[in-house]
Write a structure and sequence with these properties.
Helix content is about 80%, strand content about 0%. The chain is mainly alpha-helical and about 475 residues long. The protein folds into 2 domains: about 200 residues, no CATH class; about 250 residues, no CATH class.
Length: about 475
């Protein structure tokens, strides 16, 4: 329980900066639309979508490699230097290439060769971001969440202030957003410099070819896996454009954004979970602890899932803010997407739980195939359902793709690192979750106020049910055989 409490505490601390970043980014959207014309905003949106994909290639999975090898090597400094210098060298080569071919690259991604300066600024964003990643990962491994959250928070504040100053006061146009990101990344690098200097001050380390080869072999599957993972979240838009039209894409995206609140919980958990299970993997009761973590995550995650699914639609449609709505009435046709997107992100949280298997056994290559499976399910579901049920089909694609990934990773983990999860408790919690959703659906035939009251009562009782299930003692079980 002490370990679980510490994991919960660190999840909240890591989550502070994550929540702040997502919320401020969400709040900047109307600011951008006020100062930038749609075509300009489209250039920035396209650029950052490409930056997200290139970031995976620039980093090359070395952050995950550092987590894995530094947790078991006595000489962590050697691991840090190999990872940091490796990322630095890879970033320099790719940055130079991207800078030299910026003009054709800008034309290729659709923003036009006239925006070559945006690509040049994006190169700086990529290079600085990737230099920050290994020091940030070191803080996570050393369980220093306050330092981590403090640096992230300062970077976010600098970024937001930079946006306001460059756009609203200096009127620098779309380049303002890139400059704001550059200054935010520079602020992080300055604050992380003590961490970097502590590891690099002894000069260049002698190249350990064996260690570097092992780290690269461990890291490279994270590249296609990361790219495929990003494709899962973006592939539905171009498919919808061709099958449903641009207007429906707008309706879908507006409701899809509500899923960010569930993703916040998963991201907070992810930041703390990976260093946690690496730190406790060698303990005698490690597997029992990991099993309990899944149970507690399921309890909290399913409550978030139900709360957002049941309450967000009536909140969006209410007159709580007078004539202002969180989403314009013209977008309410996509409300059915919200529970599906939330379910998808909940399944992604389960997937993160099962990551313990491939990471601890160093069999990370499977992540690439599992993520490609998710991308294939997403594409197939979109092509199959969207022509028949519209954007709701795209919502089902999100839910089913992440569910398929979670199921596949669970199966693999049980083969290479079997954990006896608390299946009876998980089944009981799933039953209560389904019953709560069904009762809420049944109450839809009553008046609007009554329905809302029923939902509130059900959601209030839900934590009590979870607590009663979690406190139930598990019967002693025989050891798990490999």
């Amino acid at each position: 329980m002490a370990n679980l409490k510490r994991l919960g505490k660190e999840t909240l601390i890591y989550g502070t900066s994550t929540v702040l970043a997502r919320l401020l980014n969400f709040c900047l959207v109307p600011f951008y639309t006020y100062y930038l014309i749609p075509s300009e905003y489209g250039v920035i949106a396209t650029t950052f979508a490409v930056v997200a994909l290139l970031n995976v290639i620039f980093l090359f999975g070395m952050d995950q490699s550092y987590l894995r090898f530094a947790s078991e090597q006595e000489n962590r400094t050697e691991v840090f230097r190999h990872c940091f210098y490796g990322v630095l060298a890879n970033g320099l080569v790719l940055s130079v290439l991207l800078w030299l071919f910026a003009k054709p690259f800008a034309a290729a991604i659709g923003i036009g060769a006239q925006h070559v300066h945006i690509v040049h600024l994006a190169v700086w964003v990529l290079f600085l971001d990737v230099l920050n990643m290994i020091p940030f990962t070191k803080l996570r491994l050393e369980r220093r969440p306050w330092y981590f959250a403090g640096v992230r928070t300062v970077s976010i504040i600098v970024n937001v202030l930079g946006n306001i100053v460059f756009i609203a006061y200096l009127h620098k146009g779309i380049a303002s957003i890139m400059w704001a990101n550059i200054f935010g990344s520079l602020a992080s690098l300055v604050l992380l410099s003590p961490v970097v200097w502590k590891e690099l001050r002894g000069g260049f380390v002698k190249l350990n070819r064996t260690l570097l080869a092992e780290m690269l072999r461990f890291a490279w599957p994270f590249v296609p896996a990361g790219l495929a993972s990003l494709l899962i979240s973006v592939i539905d838009k171009p498919i919808l454009v061709h099958l449903a039209g641009l207007e429906q894409v707008g309706v879908y995206q507006a409701n899809f954004k509500i899923g960010v609140f569930m993703m916040l919980l998963v991201s907070m958990f992810d930041q703390a979970w990976r260093p946690f299970f690496l730190a406790h993997a060698k303990e005698a009761d490690a597997k029992e602890t990991f099993a309990k973590v899944l149970s507690y995550f399921f309890a909290l995650g399913s409550w978030f899932l139900l709360g957002l699914s049941l309450l967000m639609p009536p909140i969006i449609q209410s007159n709580l803010f007078g004539n202002f709505h969180l989403i314009s009435p013209s977008y309410w046709g996509g409300l059915s997407v919200i529970p599906l997107v939330l379910t998808g992100y909940f399944c992604y949280g389960l997937y993160i739980n099962f990551m313990v298997g491939p990471v601890l056994t160093k069999k990370t290559r499977v992540l690439m195939w599992i993520t490609l499976l998710g991308a294939a399910v997403s594409i197939t579901t979109n092509l199959t359902l969207v022509p028949h049920i519209g954007i709701t089909g795209a919502g089902w694609a999100v839910a089913l793709s992440y569910a398929a990934m979670a199921a596949a990773l669970f199966t693999f983990t049980q083969k290479v690192y079997p954990i006896r999860y608390e299946y009876k408790k998980l089944a009981a919690m799933a039953l209560v979750c389904a019953a709560t959703a069904a009762l809420s659906k049944f109450s839809g035939q009553w008046g609007e106020v009554t329905v809302l009251c029923v939902k509130v009562v059900l959601l209030t009782l839900y934590p009590l049910w979870m607590w009663l299930i979690l406190r139930e003692k598990q019967p002693a079980a025989s050891p798990v055989l490999p």
